[in-house]
Design a protein that fits this description.
There is one protein chain. The chain is an alpha/beta fold. It contains 7 helices and 17 strands. The strands form 5 sheets. It has a 9-stranded mixed sheet, with helices on both faces. Strands 4-5 form a two-stranded antiparallel ribbon. The protein has a two-stranded antiparallel ribbon with strand order 8-9. A hairpin with a 6-residue loop joins strand 2 and strand 3. It holds the Pfam family FSH1.
Length: 280
């Protein structure tokens, strides 16, 4: 299985659907912008009642896995995570910018279309269209934000785990004999404050990794690590780049896990921390 599997879609406006299982409204925004038809799935109820007060829900942009879609990631999360988790967060699911360029590992399990964030070679160290991927994510953040954080699975988690460092890392730009400094990515949107990383890993492209992980990543983060996940080794390496990461271990492989009692407590505690901080 290639580095990064998961799920839904991109940026014109359609309908509000009722998720009967979790009683959470979901809006699907469709667009034929660019050559690709894509859609964004968005939680439409952005507030929650906490301690008898109405507060804004933490808002997360959700990045699916390799050769899946926004719709797939949404289904995986809403089918497996309990209401006490999903009802506390405002999710926006987007499709990756590139249509699937090969066979998807979820073919026959989930319906197409499938998408991928960027392409890579066999040893996973050379990337194509990564800069276009960052520009696309920034475009979606501007259009559908602001966001408090990112949720990513597999390839989406690899990107999410690298973006705070790429956003903070400065590089020198010389333009018409003028020298100035700018971030490597997401320079036109607010700083990423929180991360939910599921089946993540460090980027293996050295120039990008040197920029993304050269300094400790300080934003609060929660990481899901599967004991049977083929990316577990790289997920452990990613943890080393974070300050005080919260880790939820589960016995499964490279998948969106269900919660055991301890994992659910950790997740709810993380969400409550985020809620408290954004409410200040």
């Amino acid at each position: 299985m290639p580095l990064g599997c998961a799920t839904m879609s991109r940026c014109s406006f359609k309908s509000a659907l009722q998720d009967s299982q979790h009683k959470t409204k979901v809006t699907i925004l469709k667009s034929t912008n660019r050559a690709q038809t894509s859609h964004t799935t968005m939680g439409s109820e952005g507030t929650a009642k906490i301690n008898n007060t109405i507060q804004r829900k933490p808002r997360f942009l959700c990045l699916h896995g390799f050769r899946t879609s926004a719709a797939i990631l949404k289904k995986q999360i809403f089918d497996k995570w309990p209401s006490q988790v999903v009802e506390k967060l405002d999710f926006v699911f987007i499709d990756a910018p590139s249509p699937c360029q090969g066979k998807s590992e979820v073919e026959g399990i989930f319906d197409p279309p499938y998408y991928e964030w960027y392409q890579f070679n066999k040893d996973l160290k050379e990337y194509q269209n990564f800069d276009k991927c960052l520009a696309y994510i920034e475009e979606c953040m501007i259009k559908h934000g602001p966001f408090d954080g990112l949720l990513g699975f597999s390839q989406g988690a690899m990107i999410s785990g690298a973006l705070p460092g790429l956003q903070d890392k400065l590089m020198m730009v010389i333009d018409d004999y003028m020298m100035y400094w700018q971030g490597v990515g997401l320079t036109n949107v607010p700083k990423i404050k929180y991360l939910i990383i599921i089946g993540g890993a460090k980027l293996q492209n050295k120039p990008l990794a040197d920029k993304a992980y050269s300094s400790a990543i300080t934003c609060p983060s929660i990481h899901f690590l599967g004991e049977q996940d083929y990316l577990k080794k790289y997920g452990m390496e990613l943890l080393e780049s974070f300050v005080h990461p919260v880790v939820i271990h589960h016995p499964r492989g490279h998948s969106i896990p269900r919660f055991d009692e301890k994992g659910l407590e950790s997740m709810i505690s993380f969400i409550e921390k985020v809620q408290t901080e954004i409410s200040k």
